[in-house]
Q: What sequence folds into this?
């Protein structure tokens, strides 16, 4: 019972893009191009579209994907098993929200994975994106990468047992191609999964 209540706290509700909105059309476009099997092409900005909007739609989509994947392993990712958010012995992640916690602190993985809500979308159609949108999006994507890195390094055996590795690999490959296409995550940040990234990329050359 305890793990049930814990995971429901960590596991966030899916973010929905309102039907009928332009962002919804973009999401449909993204899903259609994904079906082509060419992920490098699928991540490219569609002609005539706004870059901020494309990044926002995809960021929400990745958030939902990683949320779903992480949700399946929350019972194995506890404050006891993962007292620090890490990606192998060489990479330890500290956390700050920039407002209440300015200096990054050590944090257990379940706490770190609980991404807080960010105002990614302007509430009304036609309202411009906030000036700091790109830096907010980069921060969210960096945190999502850390969740992928944590799952790969600390919980891949659980993923294999659940037979979810193909889903995880496809989701991560899509994510990496996207952040590479628009240069959204610093190369140094990607170091914990560099070998995997190179392997995934070489299959598509």
A:
């Amino acid at each position: 019972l305890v793990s049930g209540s814990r995971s429901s706290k960590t596991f966030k509700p899916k973010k929905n893009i309102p039907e009928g909105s332009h962002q919804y059309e973009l999401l449909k476009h993204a899903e259609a191009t994904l079906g082509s099997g060419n992920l490098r092409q699928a991540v490219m900005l569609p002609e005539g579209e706004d870059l901020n909007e494309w990044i926002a739609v995809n960021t929400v989509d990745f958030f939902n994907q990683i949320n779903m994947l992480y949700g399946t392993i929350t019972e194995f990712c506890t404050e006891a098993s993962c007292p620090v958010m890490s990606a192998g012995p060489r990479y330890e992640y500290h956390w700050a929200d920039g407002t209440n916690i300015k200096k990054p602190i050590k944090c257990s993985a379940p706490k770190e994975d609980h991404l807080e809500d960010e105002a990614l979308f302007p509430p009304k159609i036609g309202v411009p994106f906030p000036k700091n949108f790109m830096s907010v999006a980069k921060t969210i994507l960096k945190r999502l990468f850390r969740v992928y890195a944590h799952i790969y390094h600390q919980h891949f055996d659980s993923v294999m047992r659940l037979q979810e590795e193909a889903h995880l690999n496809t989701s991560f490959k899509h994510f990496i191609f996207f952040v590479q296409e628009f240069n959204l995550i610093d190369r140094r940040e990607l170091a914990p999964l560099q070998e995997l990234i190179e392997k995934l990329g070489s299959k598509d050359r």
Remarks:
- The mean pLDDT is 77.
- Residues 143 and 193 are 14 Å apart (CA to CA).
